[in-house]
TrEMBL record:
SUPFAM superfamilies cross-referenced by the UniProt entry: Calcium-dependent phosphotriesterase
Name assigned to this protein: Gluconolaconase
Amino acid sequence: MISTPAFAGKAVTLAKDDSAFLAYDAPSLYPEGIETHPTTGEFILGSIRKGKVVAISPEGKVRDLIQDERLRSAVGIRVDAERGRLLVNNSDYGVAERSAPSDKFDTVALAIYDLATGEPLHYVDLSGLRPDEKRFANDLTVDEDGNAYVTDSLAAAIYKVTPDGQASVFLTNERFRGEGFNLNGIQTHPEGYLLVAKKSDGSLFKVPLDAPENFSEVKLPKALIGTDGLVLADANTLVAITNVASGVQSDTIFKLTTNDDWESAKIADTFDTGNVYATTGTLRDGKIFVSYGRLNTLGGSLKGETPLLDSFRIQEIGSK
């Protein structure tokens, strides 16, 4: 790995400075989504393998936040601080402890919990919205009214779930199809639109909340193949976290900036992660942290090729 500038100009050395990593013991967790608790400062992570959500204190103590037998894999997660909610995408990739062969790429749902207590508020089954498709609810975001938007990486769709749990297809289009996983990272922009990444071909879409059918493709200097998660650092700065897709091993985090309201963007900085299968990130105290869950090793471990991992890392990649 190489030494690269952090997003605020402060040098960060990936390979030589272990203090840039936060390492945690959590057997077979394989985290995917990561958020920050707005009152406690804890990291919150969803587990692909365990189908639960954990919280990690600034001192490194790991506790279970959500234990719900209905969850197969806890994929994308989102804190809705204004309403005190935690939203969790439930999908079945076939690698979770509660996976069922008949439900692989079939069961998708949005589970909503009280952030303070972990008590369930809604469990919204999304499986019937695209009944003739394979389905995988991946990432999600929330708008200022509390509506959730969920990317389905296989069914070429974005779902909308209202605060009272009413679900619908917000947008579907053949442009969202491709090889393997497609629509993935998603963020709500304060100017009233979504920014949505397509992992398989590295596209980035701008989707108006009031007219989703008028979506457009953000002009990028190159395709960001493998984009998994997005972090909107500010209105004009987007962090795109890539791993592997379509035969391309990118393993790079890109800082994107715009001066035309995301009609186009330029690459202002990069950060080399190495082969850790970085997924998505979060802001805490003005710093950007990314989950290194190494999900690419889980399939082999379940086949007995390598031991299941008993720890994972969170990487600080720079400042807001």
